[in-house]
Design brief:
alpha/beta, 2 domains, two-stranded parallel ribbon, 14 helices
């Protein structure tokens, strides 16, 4: 019965959207100002139901899933009264997208050294989920640093190129994520050099920063890294471990400070799927999102790096 119910509800959604689109074609003359408020309400309700239908693991008594009949009646009344509603606001949405393209995506980033800034750093990519992170960063015209695993770079050159073109930075996170303290000096050097080569083939630039797997390093690793910087972090979200977006946000909200380096993982689905929420939060709190190179340029982060390193 539960599957039947879900099927009927999904059918209702599909049918309702078809009706909305059909009515929208009846009047080519839009009046967006008159109908804007109603449409926003319609769109909001449709999205609520759509999200609810996708959460089929919720209890039958979910207050969200109990609403479709009420909302269906409300939608029908709105559309029947204003058949040009959808078409009117369609043009409005397209104009919003155009303005977003001009004001955000195409706007050059400008760093104000006098304003707070943090570095978002993503480990263990590139993976298919990295595309979602890239899209969110691009949408909000912000950047991050991606510490990549060398063995995953093959076949991802185009993605890495897009990341760099957008202003992101690529760092070295070893070839196969071995514990550098458990292998010989020669093996550490191989892990770093092979990854450097893979990154340089992909984007034409040798990475400036090396982040040892799990943040574990010793004198042997320092010698292998040479004159480059070992990039650690000041906030560890542990998203790889709990895979719970709420816990990831809890590690950051109310705790982040100017000059922080946040460790997060683009291979974790809950992170990739929700990263836009974090970006919006950080921007609303007044933080500029910058790369590791930019943070090192404008902030003294050595104390944090040393404090959180685990030699």
């Amino acid at each position: 019965m539960r599957k039947l119910r879900i099927g009927l509800m999904q059918g209702f959604m599909a049918g309702n959207l078809v009706i909305l689109l059909a009515f929208s074609m009846l009047s080519p003359h839009a009046q967006p100002h008159r109908f804007h408020r109603n449409f926003i309400q319609v769109r909001s309700e449709v999205l609520v139901i759509d999200r609810a239908l996708n959460k089929i693991n919720q209890p039958d008594d979910s207050p969200i899933l109990a609403q479709p009949l009420i909302v269906k009646q409300w939608l029908n009344r709105q559309v029947l009264k204003n058949p040009s509603l959808i078409l009117s606001v369609y043009h409005e949405i397209k104009e919003e997208e155009r303005l977003l393209q001009e004001t955000l995506i195409n706007k050059p980033r400008v760093i104000d050294p006098n304003q707070p800034m943090i570095a978002l750093t993503f480990d263990d990519g590139p993976r298919p989920s990295t595309e979602k992170v890239y899209a969110a960063l691009k949408k909000h015209n912000v950047v991050a640093t991606f510490f990549v695993i060398g063995m995953y770079v093959y076949g991802k050159s185009e993605l890495l190129q897009r990341l760099v073109e957008q202003g992101n930075e690529i760092g070295n996170h070893s070839w196969s994520h071995l514990n550098f303290r458990d292998i010989s000096h020669e093996e550490v050097v191989s892990q770093i050099v092979r990854t450097d080569a893979a990154i340089e083939r992909a984007i034409g630039v040798k990475p400036r920063f090396v982040r040892p797997p799990m943040g574990l390093f010793d004198t042997n690793v320092r010698l292998a890294v040479g004159d480059r910087q070992i990039a650690m972090w000041s906030i560890d979200t542990l998203d790889w471990k709990h895979k719970n977006w709420g816990k990831t946000m809890d590690a950051i909200v109310g705790k982040v400070r100017d000059g922080d380096i946040i460790l997060i993982h683009d291979l974790v689905d809950s992170t990739a799927n929700n990263i836009e929420e974090l970006i919006i939060y950080l921007k609303e709190e007044g933080y500029q999102l910058v790369t590791m190179s930019e943070l090192v340029k404008y902030r003294s982060v050595q104390e944090k790096v040393v404090r959180f390193a685990r030699p």
